[in-house]
């Protein structure tokens, strides 16, 4: 396969399935008609020689091969978006714009509301939003390649300033047929630690929060590491294993009965979501306005 034949739009759709949980949701997010999205993914599958998606009752999800390749697709898409951002800056346009990096849970479940309010109040300002894990957000904020970041990590590196903008809680989730779903009593922390889980990649705020909560308990090796909450939800529903995710990411699946929340004795998984930025201490301009909106929404 020639690199020149690679369809960036199809890669965006593949990443969208990982982020949103289905091809139809990915197509809506990108403003693409469903038939066109299906054809684009079909062409990409033929070019790569692997099946990327499989049909399920709720629509479509990544195959095991698709789960592997979507991480590379995400890197390509993010690099392309960064190139476009830099190119736009070279035009010399003086219109107000900010670059915002947000960890996955914040970007998927909170940022759309915040940006909707921001746009209504600051219609002349362009926002470039990039999704990363918390460690990567710290790196881009420290390097000065974004104006403000939003993270789930319980700690903030020295040299950066931060403000709490929201709070959430992580919960253990399993499919309805799992043995934990049939228990009348909560499981204990030691059993959770000894169980192979579906986990986010190292550097994710969700994973760091869980690791800190479990402390010195000996941990089982993850059964699988995935790059988004949507991919983990799909894998849990498919019976691959239990997982720990934000209540923001599992609320709809828990209400529908697709997943069950399991209580754990003696485990505190509450956390604070933060905005982070470089000095000076007082954030200014559009970035400060976005942080203000985020904090106001949590009240």
UniProtKB/TrEMBL annotation:
Keyword Transcription: yes
Transmembrane region(s): none
Higher taxonomy: Bacteria, Bacillati, Actinomycetota, Actinomycetes, Mycobacteriales
Protein name, per record: LysR family transcriptional regulator
PANTHER family according to UniProt: HTH-TYPE TRANSCRIPTIONAL REGULATOR (PTHR30126), HTH-TYPE TRANSCRIPTIONAL REGULATOR CYSL (PTHR30126:SF39)
Coiled-coil region list: none
Record's keyword terms, sorted: DNA-binding, Transcription, Transcription regulation
HTH lysR-type domain boundaries: 6-63
Record carries keyword Magnesium: no
